[in-house]
Specification:
The protein is of the alpha/beta class and about 650 residues long. It has 19 helices and 24 strands. The strands form 6 sheets. Strands 2-1-3-4-5 form a 5-stranded parallel β-sheet, sandwiched between helices. It has a 5-stranded antiparallel β-sheet with strand order 7-6-10-9-8, sandwiched between helices. α2 runs parallel beside α3.
Length: about 650
């Protein structure tokens, strides 16, 4: 029983023709659009195709051409049309079509045409089969092989046992930039990257021992333009085949695929980092809350300390605050959030960082600053820029120490205004005024092979010199400069000759009043209300209670949600405010708040958390009256408490 595929967007015609052809004994399948017809043609074996010329998505001639692209051997195709121009007829026959039939269709005429073309096609197929089985079989096989590979996207190559190239398909021009003729007679291994050549040759030679063996090679191959492309070759040993007499390589450029795989892997690691950052930030911020809180209490008695003791107190507080900023930057790196910005004098940041390096590193390493004060301002987060230059400085010190410290060792920072910067290297910046900061060191430099990876998260060279490192430092620097501040960061380095980081930041002309950075005692609002503190960290409960008690408040503390609910039920008449931690075991802060709101809808709650989270979309947490992020100073805590208590 012959199988027919009828493609026509007129369902009435399909039904009418279909009924008649079924009665004549044909097995039928239908399609009402060109796309559906193409799919059914590819999915099913049919003996003849009836094809309408005019359809909604594309016409019959276009569909016929698409069918020809998908299959090399086609069944007869008869075009059905109500109007056939001479040009259409000529083109259809030139493309290999078998016949036309005009609408309205007479079933007897159609049946005769179908029978004739199916019979002719069957005879033709038998003849082709006979010829293939005869004396011309080898020649037909070679022609078929060439027709198959010449236009393939993969590079089909044949090399001899020594790797000399005998044949390359035309696609080598697209993949590697060479014409097939240029490569004939050259050695395949010559184009492989020197670092991959030995291993590739060993695998190739080992597999030549067995005829018809299949094996794979992955290597970098040099493009005609000089760059390296990552290639995967599937190889078939056919040295004894009288037609091939060589090793057939089916090679595919996987450079982009590898890059996408690496991006996916990096995204997965960054997602992991984001989850990890939340936990780390929570724990660190709890520790810093204890440290900063105790320092705040000490500061209340600062007049009893000597000048030197007050200096040390300020330094410790400053270190704690910088540690807090570092945690925020760690979170920002994984979540993409930006910190609050202000107008920052670059010289202030650099002087402070170089002062730290001068006090904590080898005095033989000169720290040179050529940045004028009150001249270079940019909109940025002070703590983030501090971390940028501290990271660069720390890396520079390590590079110098690894290279060997000498009286000529130095770190030098210079700055200049760069106007109307449009393009730097491959980076195009918005037109405007920029600060160009050069951060230079006399260390051993960075090898060329890793300069392209130096800003990647988790890439590190520290283990190679016996040091530990996670590779986040320069990734964080790059993220702050390029993502948070719309700037640009580039690297100049030569192995054995030091390194220069070029930083471009948008210049702002307005200069703010100098901020007083000293840590001094302050006047804070007091009170006598009773406050319930709910936090699973004992240190946080104790220091928060001590700071509030110092200002006259009464405090009740609870280390878990269940205890907190019990305490609130017993003391709700006198408790005027709750300070609630969100991350607690067994019963989260959100669950506690839901239960407390059921007891008293008017309760006042301040959420306290060490996580960097947006609570705006959470309807329950959005009911809170205030939010204080950890770590917090005594001033910050007491100010928030008083503001919420005094609110109507």
């Amino acid at each position: 029983m012959a199988k027919l595929l009828i493609i026509d967007d007129d369902r009435d015609i399909l039904n009418r023709i279909g009924l008649d052809l079924k009665e004549l004994g044909y097995e039928l399948s239908y399609a009402t659009s060109g796309r559906e017809g193409l799919r059914k043609f590819l999915e099913n074996e049919v003996d003849l195709v009836l094809l309408d010329q005019f359809m909604g998505d594309f016409n019959g001639l276009e569909l016929f051409k698409k069918i020809q692209k998908e299959k090399t051997e086609l069944p007869p195709v008869i075009m059905m049309t109500a109007y056939a121009s001479i040009d259409l007829v000529i083109e259809f026959f030139q493309q290999g079509g078998q016949d036309f039939i005009e609408k309205p269709i007479h079933i007897d005429i159609l049946n005769a045409k179908i029978a004739k073309h199916i019979e002719s096609h069957q005879k033709l197929q038998k003849e082709i089969k006979r010829r293939k089985e005869g004396e011309d079989r080898l020649r037909d096989r070679e022609n078929y092989f060439r027709a198959l590979i010449e236009n393939a996207s993969e590079v089909i190559s044949v090399v001899d046992a020594s790797g000399n190239i005998l044949y390359n398909s035309n696609s080598v021009k697209t993949v590697l930039g060479h014409t097939p003729e240029e490569l004939i007679g050259q050695n395949f291994f010559y184009f492989i990257h020197p670092e991959d050549r030995k291993k590739t040759r060993e695998i190739f030679s080992e597999n030549l021992k067995n005829e018809n063996t299949n094996f794979s090679l992955v290597y970098r191959s040099r493009h005609a333009q000089g760059n390296w492309q990552l290639i995967r070759s599937v190889c078939q040993v056919n040295l004894d085949d009288p037609i091939v007499e060589g090793v057939v390589l089916n090679s595919l450029d996987i450079t982009e695929k590898k890059r996408l795989e690496e991006q996916l892997f990096l995204r997965q690691r960054m997602d992991f980092l984001g989850n990890l950052a939340g936990g780390i930030a929570h724990d660190f911020n709890n520790l810093l809350t204890g440290a900063i809180g105790n320092l705040s209490l000490l500061d209340l008695n600062s007049e009893k300390f000597s000048q030197e003791e007050n200096y040390y107190l300020r330094q410790v507080m400053q270190s704690c605050q910088q540690a807090s900023e570092l945690i925020k930057q760690f979170q920002n790196l994984s979540t993409g959030k930006n910190s609050e910005k202000e107008s920052v004098d670059i010289s202030d940041v650099i002087i402070e960082v170089m002062g730290i390096l001068s006090r904590t590193t080898d005095r033989l390493i000169h720290k040179k600053i050529e940045v004028e004060p009150d001249k270079f301002y940019t909109m940025a987060n002070y703590g983030e820029l501090h971390q940028v230059f501290l990271n660069l400085g720390t890396n520079a010190i390590q590079a110098i120490e690894e290279n060997g410290v000498s009286p000529e060792s130095y770190i030098q920072v210079t700055a200049e205004k760069n106007r109307e910067v449009v393009k730097i290297g491959e980076k195009t910046l918005e037109v405007g005024h920029y600060i160009h900061v050069r951060f230079e060191d006399s260390g051993g430099g960075i090898p060329e092979r890793i300069t392209q990876k130096i800003f990647d998260p988790f890439f590190t060279t520290k283990e190679k010199v016996g040091k530990q490192g996670q590779g986040l430092g320069l990734a964080m620097v790059y993220n702050i400069i390029t993502q948070h501040n719309n700037g640009y960061l580039s690297l100049e380095s030569e192995w054995g000759k030091g390194t220069v980081f070029n930083i471009y930041l948008p210049l702002v002309l307005a200069t703010p009043a100098k901020k007083e950075k000293s840590f001094s005692s302050f006047s804070m609002p007091k009170g006598d209300e009773t406050i319930l503190i709910i936090d699973d960290e004992q240190m946080v409960r104790e220091i928060s209670s001590a700071m509030l008690n110092q200002m006259g408040y009464n405090t009740i503390v609870a280390g878990d949600g269940k205890t907190a609910l019990s305490m609130y039920e017993e003391n709700q008449d006198k408790i005027k405010l709750i300070i609630l931690d969100l991350t607690m075991p067994e019963m989260s802060g959100q669950m506690v708040m839901e239960r407390i709101l059921q007891i008293n809808k008017e309760v006042k709650v301040i959420i306290s958390s060490g996580h960097s989270t947006d609570y705006g979309q959470n309807t329950i947490l959005n009911r809170a009256n205030g939010y204080v992020s950890k770590p917090y100073t005594m001033e910050k805590l007491c100010s928030n408490v008083r503001t919420v208590l005094d609110a109507l």
